Amino acid sequence: MMNIKKDFLNEELQCIIHEKSCENEEMYLKVIYVLEEDGVKPVCSSHIAKALNIALPSVVEMLAKMQKKGLIKYDGRKGVFFKPKGKQTAKKIVRNLRLFEVFFKNELKMKNGEKFACKFEHAVNPEVITALNKFLKNPTKCPHGKIIPK
Ligand SMILES: [Zn+2]
Q1: I want to staple 82 with a disulfide (CB 3.0 to 4.6 A). Which of 64, 87, 116, 147 is the partner?
Q2: 29-61 burial, b for 16+ CB within 10 Å, e for fewer?
Q3: What pLDDT, in 10s, does the model give residues 85-103?
C-alpha cells in the first residue's frame, strides 16, 4: 500500500491533471452537485458564476455547451438540471474529491487537505480510486461530514 501514497504525491501526475481539457466541465458538474446537496434548488447560472468566480456570460456559454453534450438541461429562467450522464460524472468527481480529502487528512495528517484534493479529483483511474477506497477502509463521509457518493 505504500506505493499508492507515493503515486499520489507525484508532481508529474498533477501536471497531467492540469492539462486535461475536460477538467473545466467537471468543475461545473461538481459545483452543481455540491450546490444541490447544500439545498440550492434549482441551481442557477448566477450561483455557479459566484461559486467558481467566473463571469456570468462565460458560465452561460459553458452551460449551453454542456447541454449539447447531454450532461445537463439548462434553461435561463428555470435553472440547471442534471441529465443522468451529467449526474453520474458529477458523482464520480465528488467521490474522488472526498476520498482524497479523507486520505490527505487521515493518512497524510494535512490540515487543509481539500485545498489539494481538488487537484486530484479529475482524471483518476477507477482502479486507483478502488484501491484508495479499500486502503481508507471504505469511508462513508469526508472530513467535512459530507456523504461520499457511491
Ligand atoms: Zn469534504
Answers
A1: 87
A2: bbbbbbbbeeebeebbbebbbebbebeeeebbe
A3: 999 999 998 899 889 989 9
- Is the pTM higher than 0.85? no
- Could you tell me if 97 and 50 lie in one domain? no
CA 117 / ligand 1 centre spacing (Å): 9
Per-residue pLDDT reduced to its tens digit, 7-56: 333 333 333 334 444 568 888 998 899 889 888 889 999 998 888 888 89
What distance in angstroms lies between residue 52's CA and the mean position of ligand 1's atoms? Answer: 17
Enclosing domain of residue 13: 2-21+87-135
